[in-house]
Amino acid sequence: MNGYLNESNFMLVEEGFTSRDLLESTLAELCQSSEQQAFFVADLGDIVKKHLRFLKALPRVKPYFPVKCNSSGGVVRLLAELGAGFACANKTEIAEVQSIGVPADKIFYSSPCKQVAHIKYAASHGVQLMAFDNEVELGKVARNHPQARMLLGIAADSSPSVHPSMMFGATLTSCRRLLESAKEQDVEVVGIRDCALSFHLRSHSLEPQVFAQAVAEAQLAFDMGTELGYRMHLLDIGGGFPGTEDTRAQFEEIAAVINSALDMYFPEGCGVEIIATPGRYYVSSAFTFAASITSKEEVPTEQPGSDGEESGSKRSLVYHLSDGIYGTFSCVLFDSPCPKPLLHKKPCPEHPMCSSSLRGPPGHGEDQITDDVELPELQDGDWLIFQDMGAYSIATSSLCSGCPQPHVTYAMSRLAWKALQLLQGKPPPAEDDHESACTPLSCGWEMVESLCVPPVFTPASII
Ligand SMILES: *Cc1c(COP(=O)(O)O)cnc(C)c1O
Q: What residue stretches are annotated with the Orn/DAP/Arg decarboxylase 2 N-terminal domain (predicted)?
């Protein structure tokens, strides 16, 4: 093992013991003590599985996890243990990742807009890989970080659906000028980051020709860099891969489209290494959140027009939770809708469904978590459960000062833990206690075998 994660960082549970079971037992304890603090349970084995799927589906692509997506200790430690790199948006994230011992060459300072103080911090802490997409950012790095290795972010012009203000990345037309300017300022450019790919993934426009087009434009940009004498050898295809199974396109389908575009424009053996920054893909489904209702109010239902006969009969309730969109539910600000709440207790059959909306703590302004969900009438103190809550819910710094960060209980099954050890080419220690009849290779973890060798990741060769 690499020593980032050990058995004191999580609960080792038997295979088949789900995070829902863990959540129920935690709730049972809390209800006894009438404690109402919201909390998470996280299944680290789910992240191990996602990693194996990633290696299998995109064998040429090295993942760098964007820390802003989930900076919780268990996630960062596990991903470091798995050999992933990290995409950091600022100095705080770089410091967090380095504090557990991740070497600088596995850190990508990926934000397109950087403060000078943070650039200096990266420079003094050995972080070299960075990205830029305009003159101003280029100038800041040129003056403050002579060792930087830069990826030029491009946004192919083929993204009409995205509002221009949402778009990072230089157009191909400005690409040559930026590369020339980098040359004049003696800045080392090592490759291209293709911002368009992320946006297409996010909007699920899985047209193979759109992908091929974006990768083709990246190749044109590579050629421009090469012409100017740069050794272009790194392509970043970004993030945006789905984290749950309910999306229109499955991860494997997306991977197949990406692979064929890569094979066409950056064939194996061309000397270009490919990285990606998958965030929600890794963590969404691993985290389940439980929060209780702190207060409720009934709101008068609107009666559209004069035919208020049926519409007047239904009640409409607003529930406040102890946490809102300035805390855990900030995921709703990152284009992922709030997951449908599940009830902890079975509803009473005679309780009719009400049109309900969920809000954060009272007094936080327009803290609207979700509107218009059908729930039976609930009481103060009732718990709601939200699945798929791993992405953009746990931040290094909460937007809500004074909101307590919910506690996270991490669990991993014995088999996931063994699979992780196998993946690193280390036989797991012999079990002395209750040996399970099931080994990782016979319980749905078969893919470990084909992925065991060689070392997952050799970052030194990237830079
Ligand atoms: C936030 C971020 C992403 C987002 O990734 P998702 O997969 O959509 O969660 C990707 N790359 C970088 C560099 C980011 O900062």
A: 44-284
Looking at the fold, whether 278 and 296 belong to one and the same domain comes out as no
- Identify the bridge partners of residue 129 per DSSP, sorted by sequence position: 108, 149
Say how many Å lie between the CA of residue 323 and the centre of ligand 1: 24
For residue 235, the surrounding DSSP H or E stretch is strand 234-236
pLDDT band at residue 396 under the 50/70/90 scheme? low
Pocket lining for ligand 1, CB < 6 angstroms: 66, 68-69, 87, 89, 110, 238-241, 277-281, 391
- Checking if the pLDDT of 442 tops 70, the result is no
For residues 122 and 155, state if they share a domain: yes
Q: Identity (one letter) of the amino acid at 124?
A: S
| Mean of pLDDT over the chain | 85
Give nearest CA residue, ligand 1 atom 10: 239
pLDDT at 463: 41
Q: What CATH number does residue 386 fall under?
A: 2.40.37.10
In a domain, 434, yes or no: no
Say whether both 38 and 88 belong to one domain.
no
Task: Provide the domain limits for residue 221.
Answer: 44-282
Measure 250 CA to ligand 1 centroid, in angstroms: 18
Whether residue 139 has pLDDT greater than 90: yes
Distance CA 399, CA 285 (A): 23
Strand runs labelled E in 106-222: 107-109, 129-132, 149-154, 188-194
The pLDDT value recorded for residue 366 is 77
Nearest CA to ligand 1 atom 15: 66
Across 90-202, the runs of DSSP E, i.e. the strands, are 107-109, 129-132, 149-154, 188-194
Measured in angstroms, how far is the CA atom of residue 260 from the centroid of ligand 1? 22
Instruction: Tell whether 230 and 319 lie within a shared domain.
Output: no
Q: How far is the CA of 116 from the centre of ligand 1 (A)?
A: 22
Report whether pLDDT(167) > 50. Answer: yes
142 and 128 assigned to the same domain: yes
Say if 70 falls within a structural domain.
yes
Tokens of 203: 């909007």
Q: Is the pLDDT of residue 457 over 60?
A: no
Considering only CA atoms, which of 295, 355, 344 is closest in space to residue 319? 295
Tell me, yes or no, whether 125 and 260 share the same domain.
Answer: yes
How do residues 292-337 score in pLDDT, each as one tens digit?
999 999 887 665 555 544 545 578 899 999 888 888 888 787 766 7
Distance from the alpha carbon of residue 315 to the mean position of ligand 1, in angstroms: 40
240 and 353 co-located in one domain: no
Minimum-distance ligand 1 atom for the alpha carbon of 89: 15
Whether residue 269 sits in one domain with residue 327: no
Mutational pocket test of ligand 1: of 67, 198, 237, the residue with most ligand atoms within 8 Å of the beta carbon: 198
